[in-house]
Amino acid sequence: MKPRQQRMLAVGLAAVGLLIATVLTMQAFEKNMMFYVEISEVAKGNAPEDRNFRVGGLVVEESVVREPGDLQVQFTLTDMEAELDVLFSGVLPDLFREGQGIIAHGRMGDNGKFVADKVLAKHDENYMPPEVAESLAKHAAAKAAAQAEAAAEAVKP
Amino acid sequence: MIPELGHFALILALSLAICQGVMPLIGAQRGDDSLMALARPAALGQFVFVAFSFGCLTWSFLQSDFSVLYVANHSQLELPTIYKISAVWGAHEGSLLLWILILAVWTVAVSRYSAELPLSMRARVIGVLGLLSCGFLLFTLLTSNPFERLIPAAQDGADLNPLLQDPGLAIHPPLLYIGYVGFSVAFAFAVAAMLSGNLDQTWARWTRPWTTWAWLFLTVGIALGSWWAYYELGWGGWWFWDPVENASFMPWLAGTALIHSLAVTEKRGLFKSWTLLLAISAFSLSLLGTFLVRSGILVSVHAFATDPSRGLFILIFLGIVIGGALTLYAMRAPSLDSAAGFRPLSRETFLLLNNVLLVIAATLVLFGTLSPLLVEFASGEKISVGPPWFEIAFVIPMLPLIFLVGLGMHTAWRTQDPRRLFAMVRTPAIIAVVLGVLVPTFFYGRFSLMTVVSLIAGFWIVAVSLLQPLRNLRREEGAARMTRSALGMTVAHLGLGLFVIGVTIVSTFTVEEDISMVPGQKVAVAGYDFELKSLDRVEGPNYNALEGLVEIRRNGEFVSELRPQKRTYRVQQSPMTEAGIDVGWNRDLFVALGDPLGNAAWSVRIQYKPMIRFIWLGAFVMALGGIVAASDRRYRLTAAARDKQGVVAGEAA
Hints:
The complex is a heterodimer of chains A (157) and B (653).
Chain A lengths: L2 H30 E4 L2 H5 L9 E7 L12 E7 L4 E7 L11 E8 L5 E7 L9 H26 L2
Parallel strand pairs in A: 1-2, 4-6
Antiparallel strand pairs in A: 2-3, 2-5, 3-4, 5-6
Chain B lengths: L1 H29 L2 H4 L2 H24 L6 H6 L6 H6 L5 H21 L6 H25 L23 H30 L5 H31 L10 H26 L3 H24 L12 H25 L14 H33 L3 E3 L1 H22 L9 H27 L4 H25 L10 H26 L1 E7 L4 E4 L2 E12 L3 E12 L2 E6 L2 E5 L5 E4 L1 E4 L3 E12 L2 E10 L2 H18 L8 H14 L1
Antiparallel strand pairs in B: 2-11, 3-4, 4-5, 5-6, 5-7, 7-8, 9-10, 10-11
Helix pairs in contact in B: 1-3, 1-7, 3-6, 6-7, 6-8, 7-8, 7-12, 8-9, 8-11, 9-10, 9-18, 10-11, 10-13, 11-12, 13-14, 14-16, 15-16, 16-17, 17-18
């Protein structure tokens, strides 16, 4: 082969390799990315089916329950408007506690409960994951507005 | 008083940095020797004031001066002295000061060990480093002053985050920063060379040892960080593909590409513009990493407290640095043709492939790290990309690279006879295949295609790396010895092989179980019997803890006794898991206490981690290879002596 042909061949092979690699990576990306879904959306039934996603919110006070001695635990998450029951089996992170903002990875179970395979709480107890902070603020405001409206309704004769 | 002195010293350092950044560059442009001569004293002066300022902050920590906001937020009276010192860089303001200090140290080192450089080159390098320092000093003084007062002073401090109270974390950030910041030297050399327009091979030779030193510190820094995460974050993972980890890993990948590309530029005068671009990228990625970490735009397990206004400053700074360097590059690159050619089978080709694959890997990591931002901008959806994606994406370019490394290191420059090459690597290839199949079958009792392929890759590099040293031992009298650079390369590649073996085995054969245990209970994991003998309260200097006593036996024979703890730090009242780890060269046994489950039961995580030590061993061996290569004598020779020896030393490596 002439050097020119060699070079063409090398470039061609590189392009094909790159194309295959790109397709593989993008497929893997599509499969492995997880959407963050607000709890109010989950409550409305807008959760993705048959794939993992993330939810985040505050752990409701006194909602953490487990059979004594059992690894399986259930707790409730809230975004200040709607609530979601979460099931988890395993060791919880150090900073998991009631009232704390956390994120859970998993999918919806058959019973309408979220089955988490991972629960994340951050190193810093004052730290709130940004997406959780945002949904909390949004839904707390929505709820306050709804209550104000209801109160206004009630006052009307 | 001391904090104010530190603050003033920092302002003086800024004035000197401006002087160091502006005067020598003007002098070099105009050919004015007296302006260029300013570079060294200005750099030294800047270092003195930055060091003084750093000393003042350290002093405030040691004195527990809680009238300084930063000290009050990150220290406490009962904090052990060593952590009072490491708390200096335990958070944003102080770690920035550490960054500046390290930049000043590198600058002084450059001005000290660059006597052989032409005056204008030295002036330009120091000048560019001065400009970078200006940026960071301004950033500190304007947005993140560590000496800000708290009035009235606090009675006691808020304590250092308990996770950071650990010897590993006391040394990890300084080493990481030495590496990160060290790429600024390669960057400065590249910019200086572009400014002067003189881009022959000499600048590559000057840059090489500096880049290697920065790279090896970064290697050790990342390895220590991974080791710390393994035992201190409590859950036995060693790499999380977390944005902060990626921020240090991308410069490492670019830096690795850079040291290989510099080899081609130095030896053969090829890839010049590519090398320049890599020198710019390695440091730009360091800056980008800082931006990502400090702006808080990416969620990370390492994100403690962050502030968006700081992000804006770094973003602008980043724009100036990268934009400026790339503009300069665009002006110079067209004149960088090279006439030298090489055959398809030659070391040049393999190094080119090395560069392409490493750059692809770095790009993928960058893409994965930024994709949550990109997707949110594009669609408003909040997504996250987990470790599984990074693992797949990273392996695609890396696995071929690992196989190519073994061939490349035995291929000659310019052209190589394929038959001789294959004759040379036949034995190591056979050994690798045999070990790659036998090891999982016999030691771990199962195997998959991916495991076997990765193990063959690991054993392959180890085996080919041993070829040349073995031949060197058996060489005939009078034959040329291996040079330090060749030996360094071999050692570094050996380290890569050990790392690959460790990663493959630990990720395939780890056994991990979460179990509910009551004191007195026994469980069997991976052939070991773990018995939780007791749970007791113990007290540390600034924490209380519940300590488990776990006895491990194998076939009835005593193996080890571990004492995992659940600590509660008294000031922050935050719980912390201290894992109990039994270390062995070929496996770790790992026990961590989870939470009380009621009825005296606790959740316990038990793990069997085979060959995990090889991950860090491999990284340290890589760094050792860097030390050997960077100490090659041709970098230490004076200009005059080099002229005499240059031909010999230059050809051999």
